[in-house]
Amino acid sequence: MRALRFHSKGDIRLDDVEQPKCAPHEVRLKVAYCGVCGTDIHEYLDGPILIPADGEQNPNTGAKLPLILGHEFSGVVVEVGKDVKSVPLGQRVVVNPAMDDRHHSQSPCEICVRGRHNICLRSTFYGLQAPQGGFADEICVDAIACFPLPSSVSLKLAALVEPLAVAAHMIRISGFTPGQDVVIFGAGPIGSALVFLLRQYGAGKILVSEIAPSRSAQAMECGADKVIDPVTTAAQPAVSELIGPAGADIAFDACGLQTTLDAAFACTKPGGTIFNVAIHEKPLSLNLNLLTLSEKRLLAGNAYTAEDYNRVIEVLRSKGPEVEKFITAIVPLEQAVDGAFEELVRNKAMHNKILVEVNGEDCDSLRTAHSPASKL
Ligand SMILES: [Zn+2]
């Protein structure tokens, strides 16, 4: 089968590899679409970062280079492992790529026992630290990683569930409640997902700070009340004008710069929350008196859990068409390196999400071929 594999920094190739075997607790998926994540681009430009280093093997999954990338994918079940009862043949699914002790057949660590599987002591991801990933014709995944899609959610749209689930998780653990006023720094894929979901969840005022005009326009379409360009407009006076002099209840930083962290503190009211969503390239400096003297809270989040996946799928059931605009290009697997990876290196600000079409809508014909009705 075809598989897009990371060999080394700057070297991702479409290889011909053996089909994976389906273990008793797994299902085999024909992959429909797989989104390209900022994480994939970081690996391409500077990796291996999260993926195993050359000559090393992930202790939980045995993954080593060359490694199949892709962790934002949807597909159709074409084989069911003998112990699987929860996922039927022909089911259209989206995959939660976050793996924990359950996927590794380990007894649960104390973090997993508390239900916080996203920060398991042995946390790994399909498409980054596992032998298999979503940029391939087929993948065998643990049945518990599969979430069935409602009929109103297309396989294409389903590839957006993962980045939306990141945003849903951050909102959930930030302590957000309906009616609260929010500031968001950065309207890239996660920032725009935050705007969209916060609007769905009943946010009060939403102010976004974003440099790129295309992303500013998208933030407005997603439900922002105002978008400012930080080059020409300071965030704090804008928050004061839109929300009030005390500031916002929560400031989400989806940029990860010293300037956005400082602005997030300046824009948050006493007792409010600064929530870091970004992955930082270097340590930033922070005056902790800013927390102490006004009892602000600094929080951060990682990935998502099943609860976040379920919440996003529920939103997409009715609001799916509104996020189709997040898909700014769809390229076939054969053109993924130049059409998706290189395109995002060249023109990042012009895109929200580029999808790689692996088997695309052909998966739906498979579903018909496998559905019980077609056998009658
Ligand atoms: Zn664990």
CATH class of the largest domain: Alpha Beta
Sheet with the most strands? 7 strands, mixed
| Structural class label | alpha/beta
- Net shape: globular
**Counting H and I runs of at least 4 residues, what is the number of helices?**
12
Q: What CATH architecture of the largest domain do you see?
A: Alpha-Beta Complex
- Ends: how far apart? 31 Å
Ligand types: zinc ion
Give helix and strand order, one letter per element, not per position.
Answer: EEEHEEEEHEEEHHEHEHEHEHEHEHEHEH
The fourth-level CATH homologous superfamily of the largest domain is Medium-chain alcohol dehydrogenases, catalytic domain
Mean pLDDT: 95
Low-confidence runs of at least 5 consecutive residues: 372-376
How much helicity do the residues have?
Answer: 25-40%
How many discrete structural domains?
2
GO molecular function, one term: zinc ion binding
Protein name: Enoyl reductase (ER) domain-containing protein
Domain Enoyl reductase (ER): 10-356
Pfam family, one: ADH_N
